[in-house]
Amino acid sequence: MARTPKPAPRCQAAYDAGIAFTRSYVGYVHAVAHSLGGQYGVPHGLANAVILPYFLEEYGPSCHKALARLARKAGIAEETSADEPAARAFIAWVWEMNRAMEIPSCIPEIRAADIPRWPPMPPKSPIPLSRAQADGRTGTGNDVLQADAEGGHAMTIEETVARERAFFRTGKTLPYAYRRDALARLRLSILAHEEDINAALRADLNKSPSESYMCEIGMTLSELSHIQKHLSHWMKKRRAPTPLAQFHAKSFTVANPYGVVLIMSPWNYPFMLTMDPLIGAIAAGNCCVVKPSAYSPAVSAVIRTIVSECFPPEYVTVVEGGRAENKALLDQVFDYIFFTGGVTVGKEVMEKSGPEPDPR
């Protein structure tokens, strides 16, 4: 028999639900909510909450086992209960939470015909784009080619990383003036391409201009302003205690860049989650290889345009493509990796990055 969960298990269940659902059900629901919200001007959080229980009911037996496990952990169902009744108790709990939060059971602005067909099984990597479109490029290993930003010969990814490492060793990225000017150019380029960014986010995720600014462009500019304001202070030497044996000396610490870093970003917030790590890496004096998601091709193209306008290719390079490019990049040695994405790819990144930092 179902029983009301206690507050503490509810918190744990919410965490477990977030981990489990992001891998399957809710990731897809969230993408649909973004699309519908952008199309009708409805907040995507509201759309997400409204359609979630409908999706869970529609998936039926394919999601019963996962939902039942969450229901038992939350105390919604008994430990000995079967999967189907436990799963239905969990879905009923979702309905009850919506009612308690005064979330409507439907949104008049959204028509049922606008919601994509229910997939027969929850997608393993929910995305609002066909895999065939994203994986159109072919190639393996270090033979994957990238066009030179200046129109020269195509370079392999291995050559691209080697070129950036050679540029970093020149020391040009270390002075404050070089970093300051790079960030200033980036700000001007983002502002100049704001309409292009809005159009790309509409094309890839059907985000409205207001959502694009609030969740992506505005947050990126805010991060950039904060770093521009504090960068000179962060770069100053910090005094440290001097050992007695060196009593006549002065000790201090200095923040140094890692070297050549890789930035891998996801599809759901493709601009902000690419630009924020890039801003931090540039401010710290690193050279960067940027790999936007293959599942947001319009935004990826705008990012490539912005980067090519602001930075020389030996300083910051954008690598576009799908799994072949990801594999070729992870086969290289980077001094630091900024990764935002799912558990499966995250484990691969951890494995490829090695147990020890690169000494270079």
Task: Please tag this protein with its features.
360 residues, alpha/beta, two-stranded antiparallel ribbon, 14 helices
What do these coordinates show?
- With 360 residues, the chain is of the alpha/beta class.
- The chain contains 14 helices and 8 strands.
- The strands form 3 sheets. It has a 4-stranded parallel sheet, with helices on both faces. Strands 1-2 form a two-stranded antiparallel ribbon.
- Mean pLDDT is 76; it is low at 4-8, 17-25, 117-145 and 149-153.
Strand-helix topology:
Blueprint lengths: L6 H16 L2 H16 L3 H16 L4 H11 L8 H18 L30 H4 L10 E2 L8 E2 H12 L7 H17 L1 H12 L3 H26 L3 E3 L10 E3 L6 E5 L7 H12 L3 E5 L5 H14 L5 E3 L4 H8 L5 E4 L3 H11 L7
Helix pairs in contact: 1-2, 1-4, 2-3, 3-5, 4-5, 8-10, 8-12, 9-10, 9-12, 10-11
Please state the average pLDDT score.
76
Total of DSSP H or I helical runs spanning 4+ residues: 14
Q: Spans of 5+ residues with little confidence (pLDDT < 50)?
A: 4-8, 17-25, 117-145, 149-153
For the record, give the distance between the C-alpha atoms at the N and C termini, rounded to a whole number. Answer: 61 Å
N-to-C SSE series? HHHHHHEEHHHHEEEHEHEHEH
Number of strands: 8
- Assign an overall shape: globular
Strand order of the largest sheet: 7-6-5-8
Biggest β-sheet strands, sense, barrel:
4 strands, parallel
Structural class, by secondary structure, is: alpha/beta
Roughly how many Å is the radius of gyration?
24 Å
Percentage of helical residues? Answer: 40-55%
Q: How much of the residues is beta strand, in percent?
A: 5-15%
